[in-house]
Amino acid sequence: MQFGFRVFGPVIPIAAFFYLGDSAFGDLIGKLPAGSHGIVNDLGVALAHTVPLNGAVSAVTLTVVGAITGLDGSGFSGISLAGSIANMFGASVGGTDTLTALGQIAAIWVGGGTIIPWALIPAAAICGVSPFELARRNLVPVLIGLTVTTLVAVFLV
Fold it and tell me: pTM for the complete prediction?
């Protein structure tokens, strides 16, 4: 129990930042300035003014965000964040549905029992293999799949 609190303790404020950073912040904390779309969305708009926003940058960003949110081992916890970011990028470059799917695929492939050892424990126990060995063997195919999927998404956006 103590190990769980130590490992996942930092997740709570980070998740709160992302979940409250959308339009729900205004409902829970107080009114945001006029023209604001939430903390995370406003940061995204500020980032969009400094980084050239195109299909390639959007696709790579969604893949990285999806992969990072998949590190918790579930694969599904980052879907709302990936959807919010895809909606934000889709307003500028189009292809919101493609970007959303890309973020979801990245989160599920990384965290949904593919390359994160603690998500592989049930499958490894059934097969009688080490979850770390299974994660090691899955790493290269998953990275190749994410790269190819990201390249296809660039062309679809």
Answer: 0.67
